[in-house]
Amino acid sequence: MADSNTVHWHPSAAYLYVLHLDGPGLAWEYLRRNPEYRRAWQRHRRHPQHDALRWGLRLLEDPALNARDAYPDWFPDPASVVQVTPDANPPADALPFRLWRVPGRKHLMHDGKRLVLSTQLVNRMLRMAISPALEDGMAYAYAVRAGCKLIERWRTIEAELALLDVATVHLTAITTGRPGRASMLHMRTLQALDGTLAGASQRGVAEVLFGIAAVTERWYDDGDLRAQVRRMIRRGQTLMDGGYHRLL
Fold it and tell me: How far, in Å, CA of 126 to CA of 119, rounded?
């Protein structure tokens, strides 16, 4: 992502998937653009070592994969990760845990301590951390970490848990609302960041994002358009250099 001759970042359509990413997905998009992280990945491929925690990961993930294909294992778990444990005192009508009946396109991995399940439900990503003590067919419970942010953590996963109601969920009926301003800002910020990493000037970034005509008319040293592009690039660099942790 540092080749000044490439124009991979020009088509805005290539960034549309960003509009449907959640916090962990966006965090990965910023981290994978970090040149130092990309070098760490190359070193890891040649000489495997445990430096993933430096980046807030349990395991290093390939930065060539975008958030649609990557499954980074964050440490600590993002608030949206659903913890699934055995129910020590289940009622008579307790539901049995059936891993392969969880709806959606699934990705399963073991991070050395537990199974981590990611399942894609149309434009929603559900992440579950499954206790090693839980076996298929056992009664199960959802766990929320204790602490001063208990209510906030519960509200974060409440909508995710609703997707697991297999009696009412129909994948074709799951819809997402129109992307908000924050999603649009992330999309443009990532595109501007890619342009900067590719060696483009601020004006060059503005021409791709807003069009040559708009830049010709509105580009001044102290103009609002130049200030907007400058803020966008600075925001992208801040998120790339560690600010992505806030998105988790």
Answer: 5
